[in-house]
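User: My collaborator sent over this chain with a note saying "see what the structure looks like." That's all I know about it. Can you take a look?
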Amino acid sequence: MKIKKGDNVIVIAGADKGKKGKVLKAIPTENKVIVEGINVKKRARKARKQGEASQMLSIAHPVHVSNVKLDK
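Assistant: Without extra context I'll predict from the sequence alone. Here is the result:
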């Protein structure tokens, strides 16, 4: 896998096609990368303690390495 943590990449396939971002984490065993601002999903988090508010979290999910290329 040629793409490493810290590289700038462009998404070449999928819903986020054409977007650019920085690789936050590389997962070579699964051939996936987590890119900043790409493939972001929303997740609800319930309140753990009384008086604490529940919240919506935005979490970046992995993208297959074949769907990104290095940005020059």
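A starting point for your reply to your collaborator: The chain has a mean pLDDT of 96.
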